Amino acid sequence: MVAEWSFWVHDMATGNPIERLSVTADAPFSASLSGDGESSLTVVLSEQTWGTGNIRWLFNPNARMLVRWWGENGGAHAGDVVMCAHKIDSFDYDRDKGAVTVAAVDVFDFADWRLIDGVGADKYSKLSITNKSASGAVRAAVARMMQWNAQWQLPIDLPADGGGGFSGEWVFWKGTLIGDVLKEIRDRTGCEIYFAPYPTESGGVRFRTLVGAPIDAGRTHFHLEAEQSPLAGIRYRVDGANQVTGVEGIGAGTGEDQHRASAGGTVGIPIRDTRKSFPDLIGNELQQATDTYYAANVGAVIQWDIGSYTAGDGWGPELVTPGRTLEIEVYGDPVIPDGEHHVRVVKVSGDSGRVIQPEVQ
Question: What is the pTM of this model?
């Protein structure tokens, strides 16, 4: 059998499969470490093999997932690959065409629609995180996002716990969202957070919470001179547009009373000092965020662009999923230095065909 895409609707709360869809038109998708992935597809009702009497139930927004599978088993199978699994946001029925277009977004969206406690909770209810690693802090926040009762449950695995230098406290009366907490963890630690979908033994879908600075979701080796390389359209750029020699972090407060922090180091270029605003932070938290921003921008960025990756035998789409490191071997090129260069997939997009576009850093 030949591996191909298949499309399913799954239950959002449990991850269990509900129905396979017949899709003959383009079905664009993207998956991203930043949590802004999205996908859509159109189904013609007359082409479906399942009963179409309750479309509103099947595509119920926020209660269903749109899942893109790759493999030889038709999806909803432990032996196939989950490329992306997105929460259905909306569906649009075109009565004249007898077609329904479904739009879905990354499940990270839930973090921006959940407070740190339930509506009507004590206004002094708090989420406290003390002396945790980035992974441990994310674990506490994601656990809080799902802890209250069955209606809060999602098929998300918690990351590893661990001690470290992150502490914080958020109080309910300020209207703090779980998404706000996760953003602060990202800003202060420099970590990435990604809900990576994977198949269960029963053909359902769950998500691993990946946390890292950066995330390392595995490695794939390519040689650009190989006869059958799946990569094409390689571009190589050195970009110093955002390079800094020092950063003045501006925190909470106004005027002369604003909290400040600074970060700098060895200067190898003419001075390029700048400021960066962190309006909610003070003290150690402000210093952490300033240090993180400086470390991310102190050097010129070497940027690779990959025009396309063609999935096929031995080259499945799972080899270019977000967080995966691509080891690109180059020799004899007039610009790119000889050796093995490591770039990491931060976003991947495509449609119904085998050609995928990885965005790398």
Answer: 0.84
